[in-house]
Amino acid sequence: MKKYFLTLTFILAFLSLTAQEKWAIALHGGAGSAPANMTARQISAYETELLKALNIGKEMLKNGATALDAVEAVVVTLENNPMFNAGKGAVTNLEGVHELDAAIMDGSNLKAGAVAGVRDIKNPIKAARLVMDSTAHVLLIGEGASAFAKQMGLDIVPNSYFDTDKSAKQHSDKGTVGCVALDVHGNLAAATSTGGMRGKKWGRVGDVPIIGAGTYANNQTVAVSGTGHGEYWIRRVVAYDISALMEYKGLSVEEAAREVIFNKISPMGGSGGGVICVDKNGNISLVFNTSLMHRAWANSDGEQGVAVLKTEND
Ligand code: ASP
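Above: inputs. Below: predicted complex with aspartic acid.
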């Protein structure tokens, strides 16, 4: 009998150990219509950058880092990359000025931080994280956000820092960036960063820093990061709606994401977009109604992928 219990304890300990090792990650570099003249070389240039960012997150998660730290690190990498519309390389508004939005959310406690309309914070996602960790607030905007970032010791740069350099200018299809992850501790997190819609009015804020619209994470359900025509993501509360469909209707993450993108967003018009999701069990869903979404994903079962254009599986 004693021996039986010992064996049982051993099996249970082994199972909980392996269960804890589960992690999953997905990232996006924006969605939109694929330029007609997009070359195989451009696609593979994007895939290379997406995989570099993915590897950073993957290694962290494998080594036991929190989902929160992993999504932040991935988004910082993509913000520093001029091929994407976030941080360096961000698009400009109608006045030719870069105004950036970013948000991060911790699914374990529903804490969130965001900044909007910032013009001089080198890495807006770092500022968003500090809003979450070091203030009693969720969203800081404009000059107040900048003053806070300065006070916290973040890098402040001239607005021209965000200009796209020549080599990255050829990539006219660049987009917002985001990352969602499940860590080995069972926690979910989401982070998103953007320069917003090209030619927007100054002062326009998109879905990215609006918690529940472009960014959301809840350990009970899913972590979501969106990209696309932000006004529609705000009006449809896209990220939260995916979580709510899972929580209240028992939909799978794939069913919920498809319901929101194809049955709620698509009929409304706009230029469309997509979402990346990782649910509490590590299931990954990448759903978009455009012809392109830069995306990459990996999990602890050894599955991994990267893609730019729509495939027959999407
Ligand atoms: N969703 C972003 C915004 O509306 C733009 C994008 O994802 O391309 O600001």
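The mean pLDDT is 94.
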